[in-house]
Amino acid sequence: MSLGPYGRTAAAMITPFDEDGALDLDGAQRLATHLVDRGGCDGIVVSGTTGESPTTSDTEREALLRAVVEAVGDRARITAGVGTSDTRHTVELARAAEKAGAHGLLVVTPYYSRPPQEAVAQHFRTVADAVGLPVMLYDIPARTGTELATNTLLRLAEHPRITAVKDSAYNLLKAARVMAATGLAYFSGCDELNLPLRAIGGAGYVSVVANVAGQQVRAVLDAHDAGDPGEAARRHLALTPLIERMMAAGTPGTATAKALLGALGLPAGPVRAPLLPAGQELTDELLAAYGEVAGGEVAGGR
Asked: What positions constitute the catalytic site (predicted)?
């Protein structure tokens, strides 16, 4: 089966740092290899929200991407997060990612300046025109302050290189309307919606939880695609406590994923300020929830 430009079961990979907070390229390669060879992931998104892109430099982003591409090769699709609040800067990052070997680009709606919809559309078109890679739009209005309106998505779908959406808008009606009217591939960006979106025609997911429980997250889609919706629902519901602890405990998913990965013996390291690490109490809760999902397993491997 072809993986397409983004894969189907992609992890929103954390960016490993060493104990001094510097980029850990060896750890990134080991983690990427683990996610693909043992974690059920056929895609990896680097330098997204979970990858702490707002606090990594352009040089670090390129080095990280090259390291992951080298480690994984063509065994999975590597999508590079290149979105910023500045169109010119985003174009520079997109071109650098293309040269570094990315298979696709993840471009977030410009944030902070809250541009109107026509400006948002122009931003995405400018980036897509500047490269030869397929572009996944990242719709996450809770972080950017600006939604990707339905009509904007319909217009952007006409661009030959804008081919997908990472949907973190919590709006299944909008997703359904766009999928029904366009060829855009929709990827769930919210783990609790992986199965609902797939059930109405979604292409897959970009998952934070897959950093630590990739096989279990993938098993939900596998059951659905095998024609067993009851088993898919059972597996989805079994993941809910872990999803809730990782994504809805008041601590960002980056911090909870890194806490769990570190406890499981996998590369992670600290988060960068202004994020704070998950405390010991939350880490213990995460481990307990993970143990339920993994059948009691609380030790990882390198």
From this structure: 138, 166
Q: Exposure pattern of 148-168 as b/e (b: 16+ CB <10 Å)?
A: bbeebbebbbeeebbbbbbbb
Alpha-carbon distance 296 to 37, whole Å? 21
Residue 48: which of 122, 140, 172 has the closest Cα?
A: 140
pLDDT confidence band for 208 (50 / 70 / 90): very high
Is residue 56 within 8 Å of 28, Cβ to Cβ? Answer: no
Annotated binding site for pyruvate: 50, 206
What are the catalytic residues? 138, 166
Nearest to 213 by CA among 140, 159, 264, 156: 264
Grade residue 296 by pLDDT with cuts at 50, 70 and 90.
Answer: low
pTM: 0.96
The predicted pLDDT at position 119 comes to 98
Q: How far apart are CA 196 and CA 188, in angstroms?
A: 9
Q: What per-residue confidence (pLDDT) applies to 95?
A: 98
Closest CA to 127 of 137, 118, 117: 137
Return the pLDDT at 295. Answer: 83
CATH class of 9-234: alpha beta
105: which residues sit within 8 A by CB, 6+ positions away? 79, 80, 81, 82, 94, 97, 98, 127, 131, 133, 134, 135, 136
68-82 average pLDDT score:
97
Orientation of helix 117-130 relative to helix 87-100, angle to 10°:
30
What pLDDT does 106 receive?
98
**Does pLDDT of 68 surpass 70?**
yes
The tokens for 10 are 């992609």
Give the whole-angstrom CA distance, residue 275 versus residue 271.
6
**Residue 130, CB-side half-sphere exposure with 13 Å CA sphere:** 22
Do residues 139 and 169 make contact, with C-beta atoms less than 8 angstroms apart?
Answer: yes
